[in-house]
Specification:
CATH class: Alpha Beta
Number of strands: 9
Radius of gyration: 18 Å
CATH architecture: 3-Layer(aba) Sandwich
Strand order of the largest sheet: 3-2-1-4-5-6-7-8-9
Largest sheet: 9 strands, mixed
CATH topology: UDP-N-acetylmuramoyl-L-alanine:D-glutamate ligase
Number of helices: 11
Distance between the termini: 14 Å
Low-confidence stretches: none
Mean pLDDT: 95
Structural class: alpha/beta
CATH superfamily: Ribokinase
Helix content: 40-55%
């Protein structure tokens, strides 16, 4: 716990929702509504003041019902039920309302959708968390990461990192070195997911996470992490590396807490969501104890 600051968990008595950021989640496609839900709900449970989910318009009814505490922004879609490039115009109209963007969960690899992602990364100057199909859209276009000077956190697993680097695979022993090199080269914070997730800043700082378990190796858990990272970033935009470290720790801790009641093989991404409030409470208590000792 001493490797990152948890003071963001304690709020002032006169706080209001605007103090904790408005997250714009760009996620989901036909057949992938779960990813959009998990990411948005995780952002809410991780302290975001407001969350708006941008989704293909045909999915609005589904997600408006599932996400009672978040808002939705129905956007133009392709014939395949994915976000269309023309959605950029509407996103641009609303962009000043948002503090942090979370891009990628369940977007699909539709060409028009990928063009939209690249347009956003290239043209919008807002802090961003990029994951999953958001990263896939940047394969061969990594110059966009470097050109955009806003805070950017990417959250690839080993397969996604291999695609970004045009490699067949990445060995586990390479993770720390690759995360550090990529972060420095493209001026991003790299969260390279896996057992003992590696978090690397562009200035060379590296954090190795100690929480989490094999039961978390299941679809949807990465979508949850994206929402957590975005929410913590919105609450401390000038401490992005701290936000990323705290997020991966909380994510893993929530998965560990879940194992008190479920077997590893039965662990679901929704179990991580359910236990996030407990994880943050444990982090809060540990942080208060640490401050009292110092």
């Amino acid at each position: 716990m001493c490797e990152f600051n948890t003071e963001f968990l304690i709020r002032k008595d006169d706080a209001y929702k605007g103090d904790f950021g408005h997250i714009f989640v760009l996620a989901g496609a036909k057949g992938f509504t779960g990813a959009a839900f998990l990411c948005s709900q995780a952002a809410l449970l991780s302290g975001a003041g407001l969350v708006t989910l941008g989704i293909p318009e045909s999915l609005n009814c589904i997600l408006a019902v599932k996400l009672t505490e978040a808002m939705t922004l129905p956007l133009p879609e392709t014939e395949q039920g994915t976000l269309d490039f023309t959605a950029f115009k509407k996103i641009k109209e609303f962009i000043n309302k948002f503090d942090v963007l979370a891009i990628g969960p369940g977007l699909s690899q539709n060409l028009s959708t990928q063009m939209l992602v690249r347009k956003i990364v290239g043209d919008i100057d807002k802090p961003m968390v990029i994951d999953a199909d958001g990263l896939n859209a940047l394969c061969g276009h990594l110059h966009l990461l470097k050109a955009n000077k806003s805070v950017k956190i990417i959250t690839p697993h080993l397969g996604e990192m291999a695609r970004l680097l045009h490699r067949e695979k990445i060995l586990k022993k390479e993770r720390s070195t690759l995360a550090k090199t990529f972060a420095s080269m493209y001026n991003v914070i790299t969260v390279l997911k896996g057992a003992q997730t590696v978090v690397s800043a562009a200035d060379g700082r590296v954090f190795i996470n100690t929480t989490g378990n094999p039961g978390m190796a299941k679809g949807g858990t990465g979508d949850v992490l994206t929402g957590i990272v975005a929410a913590l970033l919105a609450q401390q935009t000038h401490q992005a590396f701290n936000a990323a470290k705290a997020a991966v720790y909380a994510h893993g801790l929530s998965g560990d807490i879940a194992l008190q009641n479920v077997a590893q093989i039965s662990l679901l991404a929704s179990d991580i969501l359910s236990n996030l409030p407990i994880a943050f409470k444990q982090m809060e208590n540990a942080g208060v104890a640490q401050w009292k000792r110092s």
